[in-house]
Design goal:
Keywords: Signal
Protein name: DUF3887 domain-containing protein
Strand order of the largest sheet: 1-2-3-4
Number of domains: 2
Oligomer: single chain
Mean pLDDT: 83
Helix content: 25-40%
Largest sheet: 4 strands, antiparallel
Length: 135
């Protein structure tokens, strides 16, 4: 009787666990439906994108101490931003973006190292995802 009870609970537990895992994968697809994986697509290189940007959205400091321009995946945004931590910590995140979605990440630090501007743009839509400025 004891074995039957344990077997019953084990089967019930596994059944529930499988249902939750299945529901999660469906929710993930819906969650990323607006900004899905675009890792297989080719987009312009980061320098061409920077040159095409409206300077009201982002511009590097003249004689900057540090300029970072990188095309990366959404999941790696904070790895790029961490390269400028000695001048001020900046992080970015967001919901609805697939981790493998391509983005452009920009960081510029003023000549004296007291000001920093960051910007993250979606490579496909070319729209800003996040940005910051520190005085």
């Amino acid at each position: 009787m004891k074995k039957i009870t344990i077997l019953f609970f084990l089967v019930t537990f596994l059944s529930l666990n499988t249902q939750f895992a299945s529901a999660e994968s469906i929710n993930d697809k819906e969650f990323w439906s607006k900004y899905p994986d675009n890792s297989a697509n080719n987009f312009q290189d980061v320098n061409s994108f920077y040159d095409s940007l409206d300077k009201n959205e982002y511009v590097e400091f003249e004689n900057a101490k540090l300029n970072i321009r990188e095309k990366t995946y959404f999941k790696d945004i904070n790895k790029v931003l961490s390269k400028s931590d000695e001048y001020g910590e900046s992080r970015s995140g967001g919901k609805g973006y697939h981790p493998e979605r391509q983005v452009y990440v920009f960081v510029t630090v003023s000549e004296d190292g007291k000001e920093m501007i960051t910007a993250v743009f979606d490579a496909e839509t070319k729209k800003p995802i996040s940005g910051s400025s520190t005085p």
